[in-house]
Design brief:
The protein is α+β, with helices and mostly antiparallel strands. The chain contains nine helices and four strands; from the N terminus they run ααααβαβαββααα. The termini are close together.
Length: about 280
């Protein structure tokens, strides 16, 4: 195992120096440097002399270990890293063309769409509705009038909007009512009506099929959208996911994962080795 690790370590030194400068490695080095400097400059505040000496000893022991592991991770990370993109071996242009072609074929197989929409319309008409003006005439007086002229007669107050005609009864009866309750009151054979607007709403479901020009436009639009979706996934989504997975999992364990994943490279360099 140790012999294999030594051979793997030698293989990691075959890369050009710039190949070790990965974004994940740079981010980890900056993070570790910040943590160490923060411990040095702010970790001793308010501590006794004994506590300061103890912390210094801990730093003298821990910092070299961290630096050694970080250096090992930097060397092994080019082999330990992962790429979550399933089309990583395909150029982005070819991948975009493939995505656009797939969207075009799917839309073409679907064919022109049939849509259903709801149309809401309204119609306003003037209708005669019973006048709803309240009356102050006592119920007993109204009953006396009904007993004298008929059950359809009654006393109503006309506010001026009604088109009803007063009933043909004795003028004395009508005069007595007006003097007692006001000029707006009169005797009517039926309840006065007034014209008010009434709006009726209609809900209609309509069906139509996509025209040839609309279908061709949707074909082109979906084709462009498919290419842009691949571009977004390749340029933004996968790089972000790759960075997160490599930063949190594969870089800290690169000194273990790297030797395991580079078995073929070690074998190609040194031949069959015992691990």
């Amino acid at each position: 195992m140790i012999d294999y690790y030594k051979k793997a370590w030698k293989v990691t030194g075959t890369l050009e120096k710039y190949q070790y400068f990965r974004l994940v490695s740079i981010a980890w080095v900056l993070l570790l440097a910040f943590a160490i400097l923060d411990s040095i400059f702010t970790g001793f505040a308010g501590m006794s002399l004994g506590g300061i000496i103890e912390n210094i000893i801990e730093l003298i022991i821990i910092v070299p270990i961290i630096c050694i592991l970080a250096y090992a991770d930097i060397r092994f990370f080019p082999w330990a890293k992962v790429n979550l993109n399933p089309h990583k071996n395909m150029s982005i242009i070819e991948d975009m063309k493939d995505g656009a072609r797939q969207e075009y074929e799917d839309t073409l197989n679907e064919g022109p769409r049939q849509y259903s929409t709801y149309d809401i319309s309204s119609e306003t008409k003037m209708e005669n509705v019973p006048e709803d003006v309240p009356t102050d005439v006592p119920y007993s007086v109204r009953q006396q009038l009904k007993a004298k002229y008929g059950s359809n007669y009654d006393i109503y107050r006309n506010n001026g909007n009604s088109n009803a005609t007063p009933a043909d009864v004795f003028d004395q009866t009508r005069g007595d009512i007006k003097r007692k309750y006001g000029d707006q009151y009169d005797v009517y054979a039926k309840r006065p009506t007034v014209q008010r607007p009434r709006t009726t709403y209609f809900l209609t479901k309509k069906y139509y099929q996509e025209s040839y020009l609309e279908f061709k436009l949707r074909l082109k639009t979906n084709q462009i959208a498919g290419a842009l979706e691949v571009l977004f996934v390749r340029m933004i989504m996968f790089p972000v996911f790759n960075f997160m997975f490599n930063f949190m999992i594969f870089w800290p364990l690169a000194f273990l994962i790297g030797p395991y994943k580079m078995r073929s490279d070690v074998k190609a360099t040194f031949g069959q080795v015992r691990k």
